[in-house]
């Protein structure tokens, strides 16, 4: 649809941050990578699709922010000293940041698709996608939703044990 083309049309590169297990530092890598790219003069967005553990809003100290609507969808929360990083997370859609998200597959998949199609990212050099642990529905949904854009790269976070 037109909205799908429009909202990601200005994104040059999409990077997924993945791992086979939890607690290895995906959200930390996503956040640090976004800050480093931003410091290098790049326009950066972070899409936090870790629906059950959305930690990036807290890492960037914007957990009390709210998402607003515009004509082309949701406006991401802008963070950093010069508001240079665009961030979208389910953490902004919960009544309280510590609320648990206990959803089955179809609802998670629908929200991920909505995050891909309905967020007004604008022009970005990089969109970093922070994924949940493992190889679950969320990963398949994310890759399927992003497949038409053919800009995908991945960073696989591993540990030595």
UniProtKB/TrEMBL annotation:
InterPro entries, alphabetized: Mrp-like_CS, Mrp/NBP35_ATP-bd, P-loop_NTPase, YlxH/NBP35
Swiss-Prot/TrEMBL keywords: 4Fe-4S, ATP-binding, Iron, Iron-sulfur, Metal-binding, Nucleotide-binding
One MF annotation (Gene Ontology) recorded for this entry: metal ion binding
GO biological process: iron-sulfur cluster assembly
A family per Pfam: ParA
Ranges that cross the membrane: none
Entry's Gene Ontology cellular component terms: cytosol
UniProt-recorded name of the protein: NUBP2 factor
Organism: Edolisoma coerulescens
């Amino acid at each position: 649809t037109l909205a799908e083309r429009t909202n990601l049309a200005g994104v040059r590169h999409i990077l997924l941050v993945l791992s086979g297990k939890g607690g290895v530092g995906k959200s930390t890598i996503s956040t640090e990578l976004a800050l480093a790219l931003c410091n290098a003069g790049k326009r950066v967005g972070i899409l936090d699709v870790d629906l059950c553990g959305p930690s990036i809003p807290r890492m960037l100290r914007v957990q009390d922010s709210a998402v607003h609507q515009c004509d082309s969808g949701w406006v991401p929360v802008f963070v950093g000293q010069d508001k240079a990083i665009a961030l979208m997370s389910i953490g902004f859609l919960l009544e309280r940041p510590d609320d648990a998200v206990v959803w089955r597959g179809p609802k998670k998949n629908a929200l991920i698709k909505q995050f891909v199609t309905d967020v007004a990212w604008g022009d970005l050099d990089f969109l970093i996608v922070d994924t949940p642990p493992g190889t679950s529905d969320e990963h398949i949904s994310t890759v399927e939703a992003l497949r038409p854009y053919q800009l995908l790269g991945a960073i696989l976070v591993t540990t030595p044990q």
